[in-house]
Design goal:
By secondary structure, the chain is an alpha+beta fold. It is built from 6 helices and 25 strands. The strands form 8 sheets. Strands 2, 3, 8, 10, 12, 18 and 19 form a 7-stranded mixed sheet that branches. The protein has a 3-stranded antiparallel sheet with strand order 1-20-15, covered by helices on one side. Strands 4-7-25 form a 3-stranded mixed sheet, with no helix packed on it. Keywords: Signal.
Length: 345
C-alpha cells in the first residue's frame, strides 16, 4: 500500500512539474480606471451598442535607424552615413487561429454583459442611422492589416460601422448622437517585441559616432500603446502611436451622462514563457575616408557611400502557449474591466 502511495505521489509531482515547465505565465497587472458620473449609467436602457471590438496581433516587428555621417574632428577625414534595419517575424502565426482567439474573447465579453441583463446591439442596428450616413459597414471574421505589422481581427459575423475617430474622441458624443444608448469601444494591442538597446550601448554609440544600431527583444504582452514606424509622404521616418482602449459612454444631455474607461498599465500585461529570452541586432558602421581627393583651391572630396545592414529573422515558439497565454491575458483585461464597470453602477 505504501509503495502505491509513493508511486501515485511521483506521478502527481511529475504532472505538476510538467505543467509548470510548459505553462505560460500571465501577470495579472493592476488596471487603471477613469471616467466620471458612472452612477448615471443606471439612467440608460439596459442596452449596449458595441461600436468597436478589435484585437490587433503583431506578427512583424520592423525598425530602422540612420546615423548621419560628416567631417570628423579636425576636418581631415569624413565618415559616411550608416543604416541598420531589423525585421523580426513570428513563425507559426495563423490568421485563422487569431480570429478564433478573438471570437472566444468576444463571446466571453458579451456573455458577461448578458448575464447582467444587457441586450447587445451591433452595427446592424445603426447602419441606417443619420450619424453613420457617410460610413461603410463591414462584417467581422476576415483578418486584415489595419496597422503595419499587425493582424487586425473583429468578431466573426458581427456587423461593424467603419467611422474614423481621433485619439481623444470618446464614446459620449456617439451616445448622444444615437439617442442616449450606451456605446462601447474595445480595442486591444498584442505586440511581441520592443526596443532592447541598453542605455549604456546607446550612450557609447553617441560617443564614438558613425554606428547605426537596432536592438530588439521579445516581449509578448497586451500593451497600453504601440509605436509603428513608417515613411512619411516626404520620405522621412515617422512613428505613429496607437492605443488600446476599453471605453463605455452614455449621454442624453448635460444632466444624464456617464463615462467609464479601463486602461492597461504602462508595462501592459506580460505573457511570459512563450518567446525566447534573447536579443536581436542589426548594426552597421559608416565608411571612413581618411584621405579624400583634392579638387583645387584647397577643396577636398570624400568618397563615402552609405552602408546598410538588413537583418531578417523568424522567431520560433510554441503556438499553443501563445494562443493560451494571449487569450488568458485578453480575458483577464475584459473580465476585470467589465466587472469594475458593474461595480461603479
Amino acid at each position: 500500500m505504501k509503495s502505491k502511495i509513493i508511486f501515485l505521489s511521483c506521478i502527481l509531482t511529475f504532472a505538476f512539474s510538467f505543467n509548470v515547465i510548459n505553462a505560460q505565465t500571465v501577470k495579472k497587472a493592476k488596471l487603471k480606471y477613469g471616467g466620471y458620473g458612472q452612477k448615471k449609467f443606471k439612467e440608460a436602457e439596459k442596452k449596449i451598442f458595441i461600436e468597436q471590438f478589435s484585437i490587433n496581433y503583431q506578427y512583424i516587428y520592423a525598425k530602422s535607424k540612420v546615423k548621419k555621417g560628416g567631417r570628423q574632428l579636425g576636418g581631415e577625414s569624413y565618415i559616411g552615413d550608416a543604416k541598420a534595419a531589423l525585421f523580426l517575424g513570428l513563425g507559426d502565426i495563423e490568421p485563422s487561429k487569431l480570429q478564433e482567439l478573438t471570437d472566444k474573447a468576444y463571446e466571453g465579453f458579451i456573455t458577461q454583459l448578458k448575464n447582467k441583463g444587457y441586450e447587445i446591439l451591433t452595427g446592424k442596428d445603426f447602419k441606417d442611422h443619420e450619424y453613420y450616413k457617410k460610413s461603410e459597414t463591414y462584417i467581422g471574421g476576415t483578418p486584415s492589416q489595419q496597422y503595419k505589422g499587425f493582424i487586425t481581427t473583429n468578431p466573426t459575423n458581427i456587423t461593424f460601422i467603419g467611422k474614423n475617430y481621433g485619439m481623444f474622441n470618446t464614446t459620449l458624443k456617439t451616445s448622444k448622437s444615437l439617442g442616449g444608448v450606451i456605446v462601447a469601444r474595445v480595442n486591444i494591442l498584442v505586440p511581441f517585441a520592443e526596443d532592447g538597446e541598453s542605455q549604456g550601448s546607446r550612450a557609447f554609440g553617441k560617443l564614438i559616432g558613425g554606428i547605426a544600431k537596432v536592438v530588439a527583444k521579445p516581449n509578448l504582452r497586451l500593451a497600453k500603446s504601440a509605436s509603428i514606424q513608417s515613411k512619411s509622404k516626404l520620405g522621412f521616418n515617422k512613428s505613429t502611436l496607437i492605443m488600446s482602449s476599453f471605453d463605455f459612454g452614455f449621454k442624453k444631455n448635460l444632466k444624464y451622462q456617464a463615462w467609464f474607461t479601463s486602461t492597461l498599465p504602462k508595462k501592459g500585461i506580460p505573457v511570459a514563457g512563450v518567446l525566447p529570452n534573447k536579443k536581436y541586432k542589426a548594426v552597421k558602421t559608416g565608411k571612413v575616408d581618411m584621405q579624400g581627393d583634392h579638387i583645387g583651391n584647397g577643396y577636398k572630396v570624400f568618397n563615402v557611400p552609405t552602408r546598410e545592414a538588413k537583418v531578417i529573422q523568424t522567431i520560433k515558439f510554441d503556438s499553443t502557449k501563445y494562443f493560451n497565454g494571449v487569450l488568458e491575458g485578453v480575458n483577464y483585461y475584459l473580465g476585470e474591466s467589465t466587472n469594475k464597470y458593474f461595480s461603479k453602477i
